[in-house]
Design goal:
With 335 residues, the protein is of the alpha/beta class. It has 10 helices and 15 strands. Helix 1 crosses helix 5. The longest helix has 16 residues.
Amino acid sequence: MDKSIQKLPHDRFIVPATPENIARAGELLRAGELVAFPTETVYGLGANALVQQAVTSIFARKGRPASNPVIVHIASWEMLPQITPTWNDRMQRVAEQFWPGPLTIIVPAGPQIPPIVTAGGATVGVRWPAHPIAQQIIQAAGVPIAAPSANRSGQISPSLAHHVYQSFENDSPLIIDGGPTSCGIESTVLDLTVTPAVVLRPGPIQAKEIAALLGEEVLLQDTARKEVTLKSPGLLSRHYAPRTPVLLAHNHEEFMKMLVVHPGSLGVTHQLIDPEWDDHLWLMPEKPEAYAKILYSVLHQLDAKNLPHLVWLLPENTPPWAAVRNRLIRAATAE
């Protein structure tokens, strides 16, 4: 670490996104330090993606298993050759349509990418975030930035700067505050090293949008961890989880029965229920995008209530709800 770079006192972990603080974030990243910053999806915990020791610090700070790869973020086309030796017309078409934005593309990893980034695999996920603060920080650093969500491994992802501090407290890195994230959940992860292409993790961009662009079938793989090298984050069985146990109901009848069986718990639903239950319910938006935008904030808020359970009505099993269902199913999975 550069001796001229001193850690901030505990009451200054969260700082506004001023030009001075963005320049400082770039300086810290170049020096091998960690910085938390906003993207349009969630806040990320960033490190220089080209330096093994720097990325190792992410895993140590989060308590992240080495088998779980991290995504690399760029802010210019010029950064791509540092990440992958293979960039074909298919990848270019998808990137031109959806970048900058909440889409991660799986590509062959280049020799400059340390094995810890890819969990020892041959591929790496790369994304160009749309958030202007994220772009400015990456540009200030001058290197691709590895950045999983800025929280302890397996816990609720952060959609506010304060969520990052709640997770790490006095072990927090510098946190650049960009307000609430606009998408609220992690990026779609698309594997373009295979044919047909596969969505490894559903997110704000749906498989049907990618299929329409490519003119080919795009599969949706939503499987839990297996004894193979993971290509993408977000594939572990338990993820995005609050301390409060989450009980999932698959229909309205099951939801009401569970509320009766678990007195003192709070029901979370996007459907209107009998008004007599109002004191026992939290109403979510009816539309998938609005629901996803506040999902993690609601999870953080409800987790702080120290309830015995959260009884959660799963949205319908349709493509627009795939990303929300993915997060809730993993959040409800037992250890």
